[in-house]
Amino acid sequence: MEEEVTTIQLKISVVQTLKNFKKYSGEIYNEIILRFITEAKEAEELGVFVQKAQETKMKELWSEGYYSGWKNA
């Protein structure tokens, strides 16, 4: 069963910008927007992963006495 579609309003400038992001000539705006959503989610997940790794390493360094001067900063 095919998904229902809707009509949305976009400014002409947004449509022109979306056209610049096409990977191939037949790519439809729905595909471009879904790609953006997927890439944003992946970037967010990567950012969280990196942040957690940095927090873990900083806690390790602080517990070993490194950066002790930062406590008074």
Entry keywords:
single chain; 0% strand; mainly alpha; elongated; 60% helix
How many domains in all? Answer: 1
* Shape by Cα distribution: elongated
The helicity comes to 55-70%
Largest sheet: none
- Secondary-structure class: mainly alpha
Give a short summary of the structure.
The chain is mainly alpha-helical and 73 residues long. Helix content is 60%, strand content 0%.
List the helices and strands and how they pair.
Elements: H1 12-20, H2 29-63
Walk me through this protein's architecture:
This protein has 73 residues and is mainly alpha-helical. Helices cover 60% and strands 0% of the residues. It has helices spanning 12-20, 29-63. The radius of gyration is 22 Å and the shape is elongated. The model has no long low-confidence stretch (mean pLDDT 85).
